[in-house]
Design goal:
Blueprint lengths: L1 E8 L6 H7 L4 E8 L9 E9 L4 E8 L6 H12 L4 E4 L6 H13 L8 E4 H8 L11 H8 L11 H13 L3 H24 L9 H8 L1 E4 L11 E10 L2 E7 L7 E3 L8 E4 L4 E7 L1 E3 L2 E5 L16 E2 L2 E6 L2 E2 L1 H14 L1
Parallel strand pairs: 2-5, 5-6
Antiparallel strand pairs: 1-4, 2-3, 3-4, 7-8, 8-9, 9-12, 10-11, 11-12, 13-14, 14-16, 15-16, 16-17
């Protein structure tokens, strides 16, 4: 396995709603190259990462498979790198990149690795949180790049299919100069993919991010809280209002454990953390005048922290009104409940 790294300065993306969910988290744009679409038959040949810090300093790191026997190290290093950040940004990574890594790793190493960071999949945000799917001719990353006006930022001139052909040519090339030229084209294609991922991140300004994250999940930090059983970083996978309750489901990292909390006066909700790494919390809500509300005064001593939310009224939080969920309020309440379990 060969490692390539270079640094540059990029324009920092800032957006208040993005910061509301992800502020202070370290992030990494991630993309892989493979020799096919089936992880059962085709090796992963390249993993690319773009780390961007709060000052706009960008570091591009690439792990390149130069020999077949190096794939075990490439996969191990990929998982280590992903677990070194709080959040991964991908484009269709939940359906392709991450499952591909997990499958190849389990085939070669004999165990399924834990990839802990939250995956902000821009494809899912755009598809489920915006109307762009009804406007654009396609939903590929390059379609979004053209829509966002950053397509000309690319320097590479090859497709993913062409990178496969080039990789095979490089593998059998005996002239080191020619091989170097071919490998550089493959690396450029991948580095542009991850660089463009960060450049199209502003597309979420055109998404109903609160709604998309209510459906697809978001990370929650519990750092510094006292319950030693429950990890300090969880992921809410979905929030739903159903049968007079707010149901919060999610996953947690680390060692599996079983934990059940029953409703009490101070905590009028039940919580279950399961040995399969999932959890569910259920909070009763009230129906008044056709709206669904939560009486924050019953269990939150700091309930006035919600006073800046549009759905807050005198200690109550309106979660649904006129048939429509107040997604920001639901997500904020779910985050608070997860923090106090």
């Amino acid at each position: 396995m060969e490692t390539y790294t270079y640094s540059y300065k990029t324009e920092l993306f800032r957006y208040p709603i993005f910061d509301e969910y992800f502020g202070g988290m370290s992030l990494c744009c991630f993309d892989i190259e493979t020799l096919g679409l089936s992880p059962s038959r085709s090796p992963m040949i390249l993993a690319g990462f773009l780390d961007v810090d709060s000052e706009g300093n960008a570091v591009n790191t690439q792990y390149y498979l130069d020999t077949p026997e190096g794939e075990a190290e490439l996969l191990r290093k990929t998982v280590e790198k992903l677990n070194s950040v709080d959040m991964i940004i991908t484009y269709n990574g939940k359906s392709f990149d991450i499952p591909y890594v997990l499958k190849r790793y389990s085939m070669i190493h004999g165990s399924v690795p834990e990839i802990r960071p939250f995956n902000l999949d821009l494809y899912q945000m755009v598809r489920y949180g915006s109307s762009l799917k009804d406007v654009l001719s396609g939903m590929s990353q390059k379609h979004i790049e053209r829509y966002m006006g950053v397509a000309d930022e690319r320097d590479d001139e090859i497709s993913g299919a062409e990178s496969i052909q080039l990789y095979q040519a490089a593998f059998y090339e005996t002239d080191p100069v020619v091989r170097r030229s071919i490998v550089d084209k493959i690396l450029l294609h991948n580095s542009d993919d991850v660089a463009q991922l960060y450049r199209i991140l502003p597309v979420i300004r055109q998404c109903d991010l609160h709604k998309a994250l209510m459906m697809k999940g978001y990370p929650v930090s519990r750092h510094g809280l006292t319950n030693v059983l429950i990890p300090d970083r969880l992921t809410i996978t979905q929030n739903r209002l159903v049968s007079g309750r707010l149901r919060i489901t999610g996953t947690y990292p680390g060692e599996p454990f079983s934990y059940v909390s029953f409703p009490s006066i101070d905590r009028p909700f039940d919580a279950e953390f399961r040995t399969d790494g999932t959890f569910e919390i259920s909070l009763p809500v009230e129906r008044r005048s056709g709206a669904l509300i939560s009486d924050l005064r019953e269990f939150l001593p700091d309930f006035e922290d919600f006073s800046d939310y549009g759905g807050y009224v005198n200690g109550y939080l309106i979660l649904k009104e006129n048939g429509e969920p107040n997604c920001r309020e639901i997500n904020a309440l779910a985050r608070k409940i997860v923090q106090i379990v």
